[in-house]
Give the backbone structure.
Amino acid sequence: MAVERSARHPTQEPVIADLMPAQDFRTVQGIGDTPDGNAMSNGRVSRGFVMHTCNAIFLGVVCFALFACSRGDPYFFLNPQLPVSVPFAMDKAGNKAVIDFWAVPGNADLSKTYMVSFSFDRHGSHDPMVLFMSDKPALRPKVRIHLWLIKNQNQQSVPLKDRSLILATGDTARPQVIGNDIAYVYLTAWTGDFADMLVASFDLNEYGHYRAEIEALQDTPALHGLRSELSVTEVFNPGE
């Protein structure tokens, strides 16, 4: 201990003793005491202090693992997971959205097809349903869309398809690979409360972190003022 050192070498007082009164030096020694009764001296930490810290870290890791298991979701810390939605106004050209999401076991099925969709509330001041039910693509919103799989900070492009892979009864349209990353938003389902429009569909070939980027390429005044959003979810069949 520091006091014993001072007794053996009366000409070499600890530096801290030169700066503080004797009672304060004893107080500082007390702060350095570790759980095993040993004191920290000359900047060195006792073995007991290190063991105590390691045990605390180990218990923290164990508690974290038990918490994850108790939730029944070992991937709960990866967010957001499928399905995911974000607000988006498609009425103005240049409006953009970025959607990051995770496809993990339990929340994603690699055997199924997924889609980026656009939906809007039909309870606004007007209802653009008549416009979007037209067979003329120019009357539908047009977007640029990219989808990437993020691996080791690198982006791998994921192929996208225009229009639905699962078609409503009586619809003779067929999915086509998007050219130049441009897709026409296609009406797929609606009720008296909302309408869903397909932006693009895609297959999940592996679990992981994905990122979709969507940009409106034309003004669509019919969507102005309506509550609307983009979603990434499993493709559904409105004809069933």
Notes: The chain has a mean pLDDT of 74. Residues 47-71 form the longest helix (25 residues). The two ends are 82 Å apart (CA to CA).
